[in-house]
Structures are given as C-alpha cells and as structure tokens.
Amino acid sequence: MGTDVSESNSNAIVTAAAAVSATPLAKEGYANGASSSSSRVRAPPPFLLKVYDIVKNPETESIISWSSSGTSFIVWDPHRFAAEVLGKYFRHNNFASFICQLNTYGFRKINWDRLEFQNAWFQKGKKSWLKKIKRRIQGTQNAHLCKLLGTEGQLSLSGEQKKFESLMQEHDALKVEIMKLKDREENQRRKWKSLRKKPSVLHPSCKIC
C-alpha cells in the first residue's frame, strides 16, 4: 500500500512539472528558479510600434520620415500628417494629442526650425530597441494635458485643447516671421558687402569705412 502511495505521488509530481514547463512563464525563463523581473520579454507599447511603422513608410516620407542620421524623425507637414496619416493608425487625427504622447514616452524636440523628435532608443533599423522605451509616470503636467486631449481615443474639443492648438498656430506663425526677418537681414548683408566691393559706383566724395 505504501508503494502505491509513493508511485501515485511520483506520478503527480511528474505531471505537475510537465504542466509547468508547458506554460508561457516557463518558456520565458521562469522555470528552474529564474527571476521573472530579469527574464520576462516585454513587448513594445502599441503606440511606439505604430509610430515606428509610420516613420518608416516610404509612401508618406514627404510628410514624415527619418532624419538623415536615422536617430530622429521629422514631421515635414503637420497639417497633412494630421489629415492623411494619423487617422489610419489611431482613433483620432489630432496632432496635439500625438505630440503629447511622444512627450509621455520621453521624446524631445531637438530642432527649433522644424518638428524633429528624438529618443535614444527610437532609431532607424532598431525596432527591437522599442521595448527599452518606458512610459513616464503619470501625474506630470504633460501627462495631464494628454489626458485632457483624450490620447489615443475619441477626442473632445475641450477648451484646453483649443487653447493648445491656438498656441501652436501662433508659434508656427512666429517661426515664419522670424525666418522672413532672417532672410531679409541676410539680403541686406549681401547688398552691403556688394557695395563695399564696388566703391566706384558711389559718388567720389562718399567713403565707406
């Protein structure tokens, strides 16, 4: 009778071990005492996978694309990006919400003259690196604004969102004016250099220092 009990217990242990080895946890390294924190393979967030697919799409490279270095990406035309691209990947076409989400995942704007964004783990040909990007802890001012904008969901045109979009439009308009002023200044500088090279065209009594 003792032998029967022993054999029964042995069979139960073998069966249980086989069941554990067949589970996803064991396949990922949890069997044999492996640490769950060090062995678990974390999939990249869906938002990052979508952004990566958007950036690498050659059909929309005139709207959004990788930079020449492949370590950042550029939104060349935010209006077309919102109208033609966002809705194909998300349940909204709101550019302000998209920017908020980028900030939430640690992206930063690195160029004043254009909409160029960078994250050290978001690079061309390195899609596997996306799993290293972590979402920032909710509770920051940026995360609060993203919540108001209804990130990745049906967006309501709240007063906060309208103010944000208005500020973005004003910002873009100011950038255009600054670029015009720079061009005007550069033209004046070129004309002045040209006059200095040709003093003979001026009145003889006129001296250029």
From TrEMBL:
GO terms of molecular function: DNA-binding transcription factor activity; RNA polymerase II cis-regulatory region sequence-specific DNA binding
GO cellular component, one term: nucleus
Xref: Pfam families: HSF_DNA-bind
Species classification: Eukaryota, Viridiplantae, Streptophyta, Embryophyta, Tracheophyta
Highest taxon of source: Eukaryota
GO biological process assignments: cellular response to heat; regulation of transcription by RNA polymerase II
Keywords: Coiled coil, DNA-binding, Nucleus, Phosphoprotein, Stress response, Transcription, Transcription regulation
Coiled-coil segments on the chain, per record: 157-191
Predominant cellular place of this UniProt entry's protein: nucleus
Protein name: DH200=94 genomic scaffold, scaffold_1544
Keyword tRNA processing: no
Compartments in which it is found: Nucleus
Similarity comment: family membership: Belongs to the HSF family.
Assembly behavior: Homotrimer.
SMART domains assigned: HSF
InterPro entries in the record: HSF_DNA-bd, WH-like_DNA-bd_sf, WH_DNA-bd_sf
Keyword Transcription found: yes
Gene3D superfamilies assigned to the protein according to its UniProt record, in alphabetical order: Winged helix-like DNA-binding domain superfamily/Winged helix DNA-binding domain (1.10.10.10)
HSF-type DNA-binding domain residues: 43-136
